[in-house]
Write a structure and sequence with these properties.
Layout (H helix, E strand, L loop, with lengths): L1 E2 L11 H11 L9 E2 L4 H13 L3 E4 L30 E4 L8 E5 L3 E5 L1 H4 L4 E3 L7 H11 L4 E5 L6 H11 L5 E5 L1 E3 L20 H11 L13 H11 L10 E3 L4
Parallel strand pairs: 1-2, 8-9, 10-11
Antiparallel strand pairs: 3-4, 4-7, 5-6
């Protein structure tokens, strides 16, 4: 279990404990103590130092306004030869100009996904100007540290995977398999999330919610299990799980009120 709380400025008091309680209510268990990313700064700094020593990471003093005119906000490598404003705060970026061809991901749910990181993303941030660690570096270091073999997450994070593969290659770390799940959307096609005022999962409705989610993912539980304890439903789901049922599915229309 890992709580990804590197951005301390956005952390809501009590949120981490609430997440753990909700997972337990939905029958999800984990091995060992919880790993909190805000305690992992030394490990991230060590890996960043390795990249910098190899000439793969550099200091960047640019703000977003400095490259706002670039297509898709791609960073053009302005500070590769040294920060434009050496006296100011700086971020650390990964050099992507040596990656060569596009990175291909064979996702277990979405199939082949290709991204030319250098051309489409540019040199991406490893540590922000405010000193907080980037999601990309933190998850790569911690996936390796925790021995993660499979990453299952929402489709909206699929385009992060090539960046993480690039980092894993640069650091000599293994690359987990990935499975990106289709997104729940509203009738207008908007993603359901906290940013759209969606309600949080209700532990009091755990059995019904698990049954609804499995049905949405094309793994409907037998009728006799639809209101069974979550442990029984999850055991059935583990036994019958088949990623091919959601292969290529990108969106699922929510029927929740």
């Amino acid at each position: 279990m890992r709580i990804e709380d590197v951005d301390r400025g956005r952390e809501v008091a009590g949120a981490s404990a609430a997440i753990l309680r909700t997972l337990e209510a939905f029958g999800l268990e984990w091995d060992g103590p919880v790993l909190y990313q805000h305690t992992r700064g030394e490990a991230y700094a060590d890996h960043l130092a390795r990249l910098e020593a190899a000439g793969l990471a550099y200091r960047c003093s640019c703000s977003r306004a400095d490259f706002a005119g670039e297509p898709e906000g791609r960073y053009p490598g302005t500070c590769r030869g040294g920060p434009r404003r050496p006296e100011g705060p700086f971020a650390m970026r990964l050099r992507t100009d040596g990656l060569g061809s596009a990175i291909s991901i064979e996702d277990r749910a979405q199939g082949c996904f290709r991204q030319d990181v250098a051309a489409e993303v540019g040199d991406f941030v490893l540590r922000r100007r405010d000193g907080f660690w980037s999601y990309q570096l933190a998850v790569v270091v911690d996936d390796a540290y925790q021995g993660v073999t499979d990453v299952v997450r929402g489709l909206d994070l699929l385009d992060n995977t090539p960046r993480q593969r690039a980092l894993q290659a640069a650091l000599g770390l293994p690359s987990p398999r990935t499975l990106h799940l289709p997104l729940l959307v509203d009738p207008d096609g908007g993603k359901l999330s906290k940013s759209r005022a969606a309600l949080p999962a209700d532990p009091a409705r755990a059995p019904e919610t698990v049954s609804e989610i499995l049905a949405a993912l094309r793994h409907p539980v037998p009728k006799m299990l639809q209101r069974a304890p979550v442990g029984e439903q999850l055991s059935w789901a583990v036994e019958h799980w088949n990623p091919s049922r959601i292969h290529g599915v990108r969106e699922i229309l929510s029927t929740a009120s």
